[in-house]
């Protein structure tokens, strides 16, 4: 919310000055602290992930679920022809630039081309939208003291979005515009890799990370099954599919775990963790699973209900180590707000019905709705009886709108077992005397 507020402030200021501006959201946004153009995660010899960067005393890299900034449209006479137009500026920069917390203006064309020598902050923005995710394991024989065990070239900058002009869809995504290809070439194309390598060649700090060869001993494939979202109250599984491509038995040590995380990528609470060893016959497949029940995570959720699953495995015979992770969201129900009409008269009582279904396999107690709307109604607290598993949570009340015009009604619900349930609806309040 703070990010969105700062981005909105920048948007309004720029537009007030006559500069075209738009808000940009980068999903799966990289925070590169050492200008390596990579997001680096480190593991010790016991396959435990380190909570610090052993190669960077100033801090560790992180991956935010999203980051918000602005684009402004302007000429760039300080840059070669073709690098004007949309420029990225960030009112909530994650790192300092020239000793000050500032970022941009950065030419989107320079970001796309990997022109890290251009002003301003091109390298940081390239990393934000197109860094490689690298994993390193402690190895005394490696030049850096850590050997690279895995590189994901497609994880960062999953989608870069802005709002479509003249369209508003408060309950859906019809008003979103995908501008990913304005920031980088399509993932997996030669142009995308060439532009990133252009950036790497321009930064000595990045070259040592990208010059490390891939692990050539790998003869076992691992695949962590992605989760998109689950409904709150549902169980979920961590699933890793394993394919032994060799002609020999492979003995594998593995760790599976799940945690709740903040949107900045910082771990909040460990939910469940399991370790084990097993063998995979030659030319065969196996599946690792770890079941997490709803009761394991319900009291460990944090803001936005983002979860992370982790998997790491080592093959004893080849010393091949693989690791991967995936974020997903636990989705809460939305309060349905029903009225006789979306066009209502001013200063006259209107019946409002609030409802949703209890998604949990347990009883809800201490239930209470709140109903509010700026210049529309005073906050109303409405109690509700206890509700059984899968039961309908429903109340009726009245409101008296006080101000004409388009207004938004917001409803919230909280119980001891289930918090932060929300819903909203827009209404048009009219005055009979107008």
From TrEMBL:
<dbReference type="InterPro" id="IPR013783">
    <property type="entry name" value="Ig-like_fold"/>
</dbReference>
<dbReference type="InterPro" id="IPR038765">
    <property type="entry name" value="Papain-like_cys_pep_sf"/>
</dbReference>
<dbReference type="Pfam" id="PF01841">
    <property type="entry name" value="Transglut_core"/>
</dbReference>
<dbReference type="Pfam" id="PF00927">
    <property type="entry name" value="Transglut_C"/>
</dbReference>
<dbReference type="InterPro" id="IPR008958">
    <property type="entry name" value="Transglutaminase_C"/>
</dbReference>
<dbReference type="InterPro" id="IPR050779">
    <property type="entry name" value="Transglutaminase"/>
</dbReference>
<protein>
    <recommendedName>
        <fullName>Transglutaminase-like domain-containing protein</fullName>
    </recommendedName>
</protein>
<dbReference type="InterPro" id="IPR002931">
    <property type="entry name" value="Transglutaminase-like"/>
</dbReference>
<comment type="similarity">
    <text>Belongs to the transglutaminase superfamily. Transglutaminase family.</text>
</comment>
<dbReference type="InterPro" id="IPR036238">
    <property type="entry name" value="Transglutaminase_C_sf"/>
</dbReference>
<keyword id="KW-0732">Signal</keyword>
<dbReference type="InterPro" id="IPR036985">
    <property type="entry name" value="Transglutaminase-like_sf"/>
</dbReference>
<dbReference type="GO" id="GO:0003810">
    <property type="term" value="F:protein-glutamine gamma-glutamyltransferase activity"/>
</dbReference>
<feature type="domain" description="Transglutaminase-like">
    <location>
        <begin position="7"/>
        <end position="93"/>
    </location>
</feature>
<feature type="signal peptide">
    <location>
        <begin position="1"/>
        <end position="18"/>
    </location>
</feature>
């Amino acid at each position: 919310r703070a990010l969105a507020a700062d981005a909105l402030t920048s948007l309004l200021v720029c537009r007030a000055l006559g500069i075209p501006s738009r808000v940009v959201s980068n999903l799966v946004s990289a925070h590169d602290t050492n200008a390596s153009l990579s997001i680096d995660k480190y593991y010790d010899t016991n396959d435990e992930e380190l909570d610090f960067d052993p190669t960077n005393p100033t801090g560790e890299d992180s991956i935010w679920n999203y980051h918000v900034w602005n684009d402004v449209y302007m000429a760039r006479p300080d840059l070669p022809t073709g690098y004007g137009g949309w420029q990225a500026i960030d009112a909530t920069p994650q790192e300092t630039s020239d000793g000050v917390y500032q970022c941009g203006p950065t030419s989107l064309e320079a970001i796309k081309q990997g022109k890290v020598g251009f002003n301003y902050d091109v390298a940081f923005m390239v990393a934000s939208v197109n860094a490689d995710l690298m994993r390193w394991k402690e190895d005394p024989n490696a030049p850096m003291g850590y050997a690279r065990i895995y590189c994901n070239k497609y994880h960062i900058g999953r989608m870069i979005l802005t709002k479509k002009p003249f369209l508003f869809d408060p309950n859906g995504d019809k008003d979103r515009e995908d501008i990913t290809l304005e920031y980088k070439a399509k993932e997996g194309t030669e142009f995308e890799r060439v532009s990133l390598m252009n950036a790497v060649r321009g930064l000595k700090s990045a070259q040592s990370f990208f010059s490390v060869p891939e692990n050539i001993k790998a003869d076992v494939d691992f695949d962590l099954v992605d989760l998109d979202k689950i409904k709150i109250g549902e169980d979920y599984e961590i699933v890793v599919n394993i394919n032994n491509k060799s002609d020999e038995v492979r003995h594998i040590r593995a760790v599976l775990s799940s945690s709740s995380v903040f949107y900045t990528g910082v771990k909040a609470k460990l939910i469940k963790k399991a370790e084990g060893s097993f063998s995979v016959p030659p030319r065969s497949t196996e599946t690792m699973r770890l079941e997490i029940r709803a009761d394991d995570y319900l009291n460990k959720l944090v803001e936005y209900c983002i979860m992370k699953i982790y998997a790491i495995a080592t093959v004893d015979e080849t010393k091949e180590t693989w690791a991967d992770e995936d974020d997903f969201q636990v989705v809460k129900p939305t309060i349905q707000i029903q009225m006789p009409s979306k066009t209502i008269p001013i200063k006259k009582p209107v019946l409002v019905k609030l409802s949703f279904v209890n998604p949990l396999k347990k009883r809800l107690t201490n239930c209470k709705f709140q109903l509010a709307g700026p210049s529309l109604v005073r906050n109303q607290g409405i109690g509700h009886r206890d509700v059984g598993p899968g039961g309908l949570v429903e109340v009726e009340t009245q409101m008296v709108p006080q101000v004409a015009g388009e207004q938004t009604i917001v409803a919230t619900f909280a119980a001891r077992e289930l918090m932060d349930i929300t819903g909203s609806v827009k209404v048009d309040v009219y005055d009979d005397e107008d």
